[in-house]
Amino acid sequence: MSHEKFQSCIDECIACATECKHCASACLNEDDVKMLSRCIQLDMECASACLSAAQLMMLGGENATVFCQSCAEICDACAEECEKHAGHMVHCKECADACRKCAEECRSMAGQHV
Question: What CA dihedral angle connects 26, 27, 28 and 31, to 10 degrees?
């Protein structure tokens, strides 16, 4: 499979990983880091999953669609956690938004290319 057909999903995965890494870093600078430990952990997991999914798609890998389904679930979990803090932390809101977009794009890609 050609990676070009996955380009919009690759772009969303990279954007999501970027926001997740920014969110984790920003959370580490908040006053109550302990309260944000789950958010930070999910940010790091989501960033790793998104970058891995992007790499599989870049390769045109046969497992890209399977992995993107899992990536969507990880993005959903990260978005759900970030949304808990989105009212008072803009970085969490931006991360949640990026995670929702990425999850949607991953599900769309996986559904179209199974």
Answer: 110
Q: The domain spanning residue 54 has which CATH number?
A: 1.20.1270.360
Question: What DSSP designation does 60 have?
Answer: T
Distance CA 9, CA 109 (A): 7
Rounded to whole angstroms, the Cα distance separating 64 from 110 reads 8
What would the pLDDT profile of 80-91 be if each residue is shown by its tens digit? 999 999 899 999
Could you list the residue range(s) of the whole structural domain that residue 39 is in?
3-112
Instruction: Categorize the per-residue pLDDT at 61 as very low, low, confident or very high, splitting at 50, 70 and 90.
Output: confident
What pTM was computed for the model? 0.92
